[in-house]
Amino acid sequence: MSYTRRTFAKTALLSAGTAAFHATRAGDAPPNVLFVTVDQMRGDCIGAVGHPNVRTPNLDRMAREGLLFRNGFASGPVCVPTRKSCFSGRHPHEHGSLTNNDGDVLRWQGSMLEYFAKRGYRTAWVGKNHTYDKAALSEIDYTDIRSREAFRAYNGYVPPHWHSAVYWPEEDCYPHINTQSAIKFLNQAGDDPFFLHVSYFDPHPPYMAPARYAARYDSGDMVLPDRTDPAALCGRLERYARAMGFSELDREDLTETMRYYYAQVEWGVDQPLGRLLRALENRGLAENTVVVLTADHGDFMGDYGMVRKGMFLYDSLLHVPLLWWAPGRIAAGTRTDALALSNDLFPTLAELTGGTRVEEASGTSLVQTLLGGGEDREEIYTSAAYGDLAPDVLPPDLAPEDEDGIPRHTRVLRPTMRPMHRTKMVRTSEWKLILNETEPAELYSIADSTPRERVNLAGSSRHAAVRRSLEKKLSSWWRW
Fold first, then answer.
1. For residues 398-417, b (16+ Cβ closer than 10 Å) or e, as one string?
2. pTM (predicted TM-score)
3. What's the Cα-to-Cα distance from 121 to each of 129, 246, 433, rounded to whole Å?
4. Alpha carbon 23 to its chain's center
5. Does residue 156 or residue 297 have the better pLDDT?
6. Which has the higher per-residue pLDDT, 39 or 398?
């Protein structure tokens, strides 16, 4: 645990206008912010949106008492680009990290934490970082940052398909420890408003949960999406799937992995969230705190017969939870189909707490949507990069580990994280266009199916006008 002692200059940065008036409730102190980020959680993995397997009573409570975005999307398909987008308000190609291995981590200047610190907020960060550099972390008032638990190392206890029971006592695991640390901060909250970021590791692989949670899920009950051949989308996905060995996974492999994934969501995300909400209520902070929960990216988790992540701009990896909870400020039980992105969070939290406009952010404030008005945007955009795999890389009969003990998935993922080629996506409520520098275009009709991208229509003359329109939008947004 580390602390810094700073005397904040009190500033009254209240924006005029109806939205800010309602956000600050006509003269009340600016609301606190509890921003919760989870790692690799799909946007459909919530009971409140009708998921057939997962149990999420506390996420469901947030949806019941707050606002749920049905179309919340990550700014990138992996950790660092999205996390930097959350705290900078900018797209990955704007802040300089198109993959996890691209660019520097975020600096203090111009970031969301500096913004709130300048407004007199006490700042805190608990859990995973993958966002800020060391100098920035030293500016935060309360930090309790840690890397992943040792038991999650890819060792002999973790089967090839990345699932296992947690074999440490629950009180020694990070869902508990990070939550305890966050509650400690809440218990010492003073008169100054606070901005607390709690960054959980779950449900990132290896997919692990204590036996008492895993026992609540039966492999036979798991609902698998209809199998779609990765080659139907693009050659790059097919090569990746083959190199990772996903073609070798049968139904039993996938359903067992799914069982642990959903148990990990319940144990490592939902239960800690419930403890945080109860802590706010016990301290009398709930009525003056804005709570937002999202994920840095999703997971294939059965789509295309695959699991884990990759440098691809499909909804499996980009569609993430986005829940807002602020009793008395945001109407309870609200659902919206409005499109939202990670880089919208900075300008939204700035306005919702009565602050001034974030000029350097390219994200869009969602306050009007949160307060029940405004027009929905027509499209969202995502940028990323990738390294391509040779057609003959890692044949299926290759052993899970090489002579150096490096897991197969690591040896595949590393070259694909090299920012050698660019990819970008535009998505409306009906269509998605993906452009890759080394692959033909991908055009998908977005329907109510899982996965949403099934048939590449880019070569269809019937949809040529749609493709041209979306290509023009993408070219204007990020010109190659």
1. eeeeeeeeebbbebbbeebb
2. 0.93
3. 20, 47, 41
4. 25
5. 297
6. 39
pLDDT band at 172 (very low <50, low <70, confident <90, very high): very high
Question: Helix count (H) and strand count (E) of the chain?
Answer: 16, 15
- How high is the pLDDT of residue 205? 93
In terms of Cα–Cα distance, which of 72, 70, 49, 51 is closest to 337?
Answer: 70
Domains and CATH numbers, the chain: 9-378 (3.40.720.10)
DSSP codes joined into one string, 278-335: HHHHHTT-GGGEEEEEEES----TTGGG--S--S---HHHHB--EEEE-TTTS-TTEE
Q: Would you give the DSSP letter of residue 268?
A: I
C-alpha dihedral (331, 335, 339, 345), degrees to nearest 10 = 40
Give the pLDDT of residue 18: 38
Neighbours of 243 (CB within 10 A): 25
Tokens of 469: 């329109």
Residue 410 has a pLDDT of 83
- CB-CB neighbours of 132 under 10 Å: 24
Which residue type sits at 198? V
Query: How far is Cα of residue 395 from the mean position of the Cα atoms in its chain?
Result: 32
Please tell me what DSSP assigns to residue 413: H
Give per-residue burial for 87-105: e unless 16+ CB within 10 Å, then b: bbbbbbbbbebbbbbbbeb
Amino acid code (one letter) for 451? P
Binned at pLDDT 50, 70 and 90, residue 1 comes out as: low
Residue 401 tokens, joined = 């580990």
Measured CA to CA, the distance from residue 367 to residue 345 in angstroms comes to 10
Q: Which amino acid is at 163?
A: H
